[in-house]
Amino acid sequence: MNLKLKQYLNTPLQIGNRIIKKRLILAPMSGLTHVAFRELVAEYGGHGLLYTEMCSAKNLPHENRHVSPVFRWRDTELSGLVCQIFGSDPAIMADAARRIESEGFFGVDLNFGCSVAAICKRNCGAALLKDPELSVKIVQTVRQAVSIPVLVKFRTGWEDRSDMPVDLARRFEDAGADSLIFHPRVAPDRRSRPPKWKYIALVKQAVSIPVFGNGEVFCKADCEKMFSETGCDGIALGRIAAAMPWIFAQWSDEFMPDADICRRNARQMLFLLHQHFEGKTAIRKFKKMSVYMAAVFKYGHVFAKKICSANDAAGIEAAIDEFFDASPKRAGRPNMNLFR
Ligand SMILES: Cc1cc2nc3c(=O)[nH]c(=O)nc-3n(C[C@H](O)[C@H](O)[C@H](O)COP(=O)(O)O)c2cc1C
């Protein structure tokens, strides 16, 4: 099965007018999938696509890539980079998509899944799932505005009913979406209950465009299980990628992590953050990331606490070394109190 999984992960997949070579992609995560983290993932390789953090469609046409914390990239990653936007006005979403196309991104993704109150109360993110007419109109308008792939990341909706995402998936395909990334959770649920993978199977059966499954794929067995239970075309990895950014290379390529990978990875994350952001921002972003790194260890909360109480890069490096010098034990599954 291992060989078969690897072969499948390396089977090219057509998305709109483009082809990706690998089927594991990075899920968008605000505060985590910044340019420094993506550089770290790219150093290991093995991924099909990378995602930006969500960007405001309204701000995007005026963003300066050298100043914006989210609309920022390395030129070498652009051809495999998807920019995710949130908004609720079809014309504004289309303007943002035009800018994304003109910069040379692989594609644009429409955020119909974020259930954070600040986003939903502006009628963006998952709030749009309450208004299928508007969300379909957004897909249509963006589709007409650009020729790069248009992807849609969405959730089950606001009620736990499989017919809603299935109906939406069909309508998104009809409106011109090139691919769907589906996270089968209802919107009020911020990752507390398990995602219902059987809904991914139903969405996959309903459309002919590629469907990426998403939600709680934390180990190779989960990965195989999601493929076999749902028939999805690819998988978007979220939190586990923040904890172990080499996971794409480990599952898709020949990458074998050694015993000290977590220490080196943490140090490299800190280094890259300082390459891309000024000191205080780099430290703040590292602290956010470290909670996910900690979650894959027994007593990882001790590590997270130490990192969060450090004041500068030297303090963080000392906390990293102190934790890993003690040869911490890995947890079987990530600690869900930290994996929020
Ligand atoms: C800190 C954090 C930030 C997130 N931000 C976004 C976002 O900006 N856009 C989005 O579509 N999903 C966002 N998500 C959801 C993830 O893309 C993904 O759907 C979710 O984490 C489930 O996948 P996982 O179990 O592999 O982590 C975020 C998740 C986390 C943990």
Describe the 3D structure.
The chain has 340 residues and is α/β, with parallel strands linked by helices. Strands 3-10-9-8-7-6-5-4 form an eight-stranded parallel sheet. The protein has helices spanning 2-9, 35-44, 90-103, 117-120, 132-145, 163-174, 197-206, 220-230, 239-243, 247-252, 261-276, 279-294, 300-309, 313-325, and strands at residues 13-15, 18-20, 24-26, 50-56, 81-86, 107-112, 150-157, 179-186, 211-214, 234-237. Helix 13 (300-309) packs antiparallel against helix 14 (313-325). The two termini are 31 Å apart. It is built from 14 helices and ten strands. Strand 1 (13-15) and strand 2 (18-20) form a beta hairpin. It binds flavin mononucleotide. Residues 27-32, 53-54, 84, 111, 113-114, 153, 183, 214-217, 237-240 line the site of flavin mononucleotide.
Task: Give me a quick take on this structure.
The protein has 340 residues and is an alpha/beta fold. The chain is built from 14 helices and ten strands.
How does the SSE layout of this entry go?
Blueprint: H1 2-9, E1 13-15, E2 18-20, E3 24-26, H2 35-44, E4 50-56, E5 81-86, H3 90-103, E6 107-112, H4 117-120, H5 132-145, E7 150-157, H6 163-174, E8 179-186, H7 197-206, E9 211-214, H8 220-230, E10 234-237, H9 239-243, H10 247-252, H11 261-276, H12 279-294, H13 300-309, H14 313-325
Parallel strand pairs: 3-10, 4-5, 5-6, 6-7, 7-8, 8-9, 9-10
Antiparallel strand pairs: 1-2
Helix pairs in contact: 2-11, 3-5, 6-7, 11-12, 11-14, 12-13, 13-14
Flavin mononucleotide binds at residues 27-32, 53-54, 84, 111, 113-114, 153, 183, 214-217, 237-240.
